[in-house]
Hints:
alpha+beta
Amino acid sequence: xxxxxxxxxxxxxxxxxxxxxxxxxxxxxxxxxxxxxxxxxxxxxxxxxxxxxxxxxxxxxxxxxxxxxxxxxxxxxxxxxxxxxxxxxxxxxxxxxxxxxxxxxxxxxxxxxxxxxxxxxxxxxxxxxxxxxxxxxxxxxxxxxxxxxxxxxxxxxxxxxxxx
Length: 164
């Protein structure tokens, strides 16, 4: 189960409203992920367990969010990216390890065509169209982040919510 947070209409900040079912009273880890778009396709990385994921990872102590995201993407893919905007955030509760608070950003590869060199954290990479992504095994939160990007592209000028 993944718990989404609510974003405000400014896109640059988050207004966080945690569902009552989610409990972050225990320690949690902040993780940043990048939806890297290359020629209208999304870069995905397959983990050894078979699940596909977005590039990204944990922030280092004292590291800025954008700096950390760019570092993680370079480490995992060899790509340099431009971070365009925040997409969403969500919580991945875990039983044994600390839960993850995941913040997802839309990114653009600075080199086209993208030449990806994956790290030993992953076993495969792929560039997928929105239609192809639906068949990939991934976390619900990751799928929600991807859906948020595609919904925004389909409707680039959404109306802000009446109230949060």
